[in-house]
Amino acid sequence: MARDILVTGGATGIGLAVARHFAESGEKVVVTGRRQAPLEAAAAEIGARALVCDHTDPRAVARLQGELPDRLDVLVNNAGGNTDFDAEADEALGELEAFARDFRANLDANLLSAALTTRAVEGRLAAGGAVVSIGSIAADKGSGAYGAAKAGLASWNLGLARQVGARDITANLVAPGYIADTEFFRDKLTAERRDALVAATALGRPGAPGDIAGAVAFLASPAARDITAQVLHVNGGERGTR
Ligand code: NDP
Fold first, then answer.
1. Among all residues, which ones are annotated catalytic?
2. Which domains are present in the chain?
3. Is the per-residue pLDDT at 221 higher than 80?
4. Are the C-beta atoms of residues 4 and 76 closer than 8 Å to each other?
5. How confident is the model over 47-94, as pLDDT tens digits?
6. Which residue, judged by its Cα, is nearest atom 11 of ligand 1?
7. Using an 8 Å Cβ cutoff, are 40 and 17 in contact?
């Protein structure tokens, strides 16, 4: 029987690759995102349902609750990103105010979004189901507010695994390394920085969104039923060899 799967931030990059993987396997997929046009285009392309939602906003997540199926098998908390990249000097704010704003934005985008969404749907997750959240190698690298938020996500996941485990639901993280060709890094890295990230891997190449989709699909599959409260690192060996 087809499973019901929610992929947050499923219009682009890793989320789209995950959603596509499940849709091509015959599952019923809902994708979310804040921007309606790219979301609807992506959903139409892969045969998924599109629901606009800002996962940092409790009211938007409450509205989403009303639109989702009564029963879900898999939740993929993928929505997120490094809001440091977009931080702009704001002369109207003092330095500390601007720092606090940008720090909070990272925590909201990468930690609160997953916790809030999981809280909203965990009651409808079926036995045998799975929550897979997208962490980052940044959690282990001292990468400012973004890395701290992803480290927090890994810690939060431990409690979640205990909480939902009694209902035979697993909770894991996939922690990507450098995944080229998504909006995350597009136009944001110098050639030198890109080369350095690739050189730090054992495989000598960046990862692709499909690599993460494969890992997520595994953790949501019957083959991974005894795996919970874990972080699966998918980074071409960067973590092990640096
Ligand atoms: P993208 O920017 O392509 O994907 C992020 C997606 O999330 C977008 O579709 C965006 O759509 C959506 N999104 C962001 N914030 C929200 C929100 N508040 N509510 C709803 N949707 C949201 O980048 P990636 O695919 O690379 O990133 C996906 C995940 O992978 C992120 O969690 C990122 O931190 C993580 N990651 C990426 C790595 C990489 O190298 N690319 C490495 C490690 C981790 P919209 O703006 O329309 O809302």
1. 146
2. 4-234 (3.40.50.720)
3. yes
4. no
5. 999 999 999 999 999 999 999 999 999 999 999 999 877 666 677 889
6. 33
7. no
Please give the distance, rounded to the nearest whole angstrom, from the Cα atom of residue 95 to the centre of ligand 1: 27
How far apart are alpha carbons 27 and 30 in whole angstroms? 10
pLDDT in tens, 197-209: 999 999 999 999 9
pLDDT attached to residue 88: 67
- Going by alpha carbons, the residue nearest to atom 12 of ligand 1 is 9
What tokens does 5 get? Answer: 């799967």
pLDDT at residue number 237: 96
pTM over 0.90: yes
Q: State the sign of the Cα–Cα–Cα–Cα dihedral 37, 42, 47, 49.
A: negative
CB 114 within 8 A of CB 77: yes
* pLDDT value, residue 84: 74
Phi, psi at 240, each rounded to 5°: -80, -20
Quote the ligand 1 centre to 230 CA distance (angstroms): 21
For residue 158, how many C-alpha atoms fall within 13 Å in the half-sphere facing its CB? 4
